[in-house]
Amino acid sequence: MEKEIPVDQSDSRAAPAPILRKALLTAGIDPARRIASVEIQSVTMAPGVAAPLHLHPCPTMGVVTQGFIAYQIRGKSVRHLKAGEAFYEPAGVAVARFDNEGDVSATFVVHYLLEEGAQDTVKVL
Fold this sequence. Notes:
Elements: E1 4-7, E2 19-22, E3 35-45, E4 54-55, E5 60-66, E6 68-73, E7 79-82, E8 86-89, E9 95-99, E10 106-115, E11 123-124
Antiparallel strand pairs: 1-2, 3-10, 4-11, 5-8, 5-10, 6-7, 6-9
């Protein structure tokens, strides 16, 4: 899945180093959902903090920017995410783990894809 894609830099004043794009995640969204807005949050979890069992009423995706996260959709295997790795949480699916098992804070940027009039982003189970 990782593929770096060079971007054309035809401007001779551009820095000599190329711009690289790295694919982090491709997630299929239910086509019946009509996404009206995206709410983006930066979240920091203190060392050892474990998120409660929860779900998102909207499709949710993000990227870990610092630290390590143990991530598990209920019924699936645990993934251990580090800075630069992306995650996807489908709407209405229980998230069994989203835990900072490290001894330093973990930060991630999360995108909530909201339908018209929706405000809720997390529901604790």
